[in-house]
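Ticket #4471: structure export looks truncated?
Reporter: QA, pipeline team
Priority: medium

Steps to reproduce: submit the single chain below to the structure queue and open the exported record.
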Amino acid sequence: MSAPANLRLPTRRYALGAGFALEGLKYFRYWLIAAVILSVALPLFIAQFNDIRLSAWFYAANVGKWFTAFVGGGFVYSLVPNMIAAGLTRRELAVSMGVFGLLWSALLGAIAFAGLVAERYLYGALDWSHGIDAHDVIAPIGSLGDTVALGASYPLLYLVYFAAGTVIGAASYRWEASGWLLLVPIVPIVFSLDNGLFDTEPVGPGWAGFLGLFMDGWDRRLIVAAIVLATAGLAAAAYRLLIDVPLRSKQA
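Actual output as written to the record:
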């Protein structure tokens, strides 16, 4: 191996993480374009028959959270055998997945933020109400500052969903028959924190947000801190799972 290649070894985990994020966006770019088009086209169509009171982008961005969890879990599940077989260490894989999650969440969060702010101006120009589903009540998002605050939460929320998906994906690879059962404790925690941040109704099973009942009245900064702690805990769990995960032999 050449000297320049050796010099790259300490940093290749970061380059791989960045590459995963960019390739992921490239691979799913048509999905993202379709989400943008539908979020504009559907309200324009529905407006021919009914008043528009709900943000279409709010639903698209919320679906993006579950999509992000799927990306984190799916990528790590498929990458473990391939990357290790290609000479990547388990620790390098764990770090590269962390870089991947940070960049993916930041990039997708920036798209969600820009889409929500742009939609506010579109709705304002068409004299539509810009609201969200807050537990079966349509609540206006409010001022531009409120819109910015809601949009700014997406990078952090995408990150906690990515971390949750990665833990479940790594556990499903490590314990093939039972690893997916980590869904049981993880989903209610993540979903409830998401639900409690703006007292909204995220896209997903309503029963999964039951822990939000215990957060009623919490200061938003406290919920943000709880999301950060949950993200750190999930990231640590994913790291521990990946650094000593066994490599299963394929059946003939």
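Status: closed, not a bug. The export was complete when the record was re-opened. Leaving a note from the reviewer for reference: Residues 1-7 have pLDDT under 50 and may be disordered.
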